[in-house]
Amino acid sequence: MINVYNYVLDSLSDWEIGYVTAELNSGQYFKKQSDHVSVKTVGSTKDPIITKGGMTVIPDITFDEIISDSSTVLLLPGADTWTDTKHIPIIEKATELLDCGAMVAAICGATTVLAEAGVFDKRIHTSNSLEYLKMVCPSYKGESYYRDVKAVADSNLITASSAGGLLFAQTILKKLDVFSENTLEAWYNYFNTGDAKYFYALLQTL
């Protein structure tokens, strides 16, 4: 069982995690021998949040209910409200999860709070730009580990820029090994190019 926790907060950037949450929750392209995946939304409380796209989401659980083991995946989406102190516990949980071998995947604004917490000081990472991190994160010391790419993985830490949602998803799906190699390649190529030949190739891999 793979437990995926999608942290939700006001102004969440819907598009940044849409690819990965849709695939992990539906399992529509999973290979037959894939582990079962459970996807739950997590909040600082169970109060409803409103995404940037105007959708209301009621969290399934709160951060203190997250299972901390190596099969856990924590998704941290971009949002304009990460500076609110009520999100400090989820960043502490993210550090705890990384230490126990669980996967933490952060995109856009979520990378700033990890940077500020020192998570990037000795881990390869990316964000919207190096200048962006240096500007908004006074405590950031990971400049030598920064990579100017849309998404990157360093062991169990995955980070991405706001423009890297598709590559972010591909990197997570590859790490979890829920798609066959051929399926993941066709899936990525279809959504990256829009060429119908990749969609038919995707179907043929199933």
TrEMBL record:
Superkingdom of this protein's organism: Bacteria
Transmembrane portions of the chain: none
Residue ranges of every copy of the DJ-1/PfpI domain listed in the record: 5-174
Protein name as annotated: DJ-1/PfpI family protein
Species this protein is from: Halobacillus naozhouensis
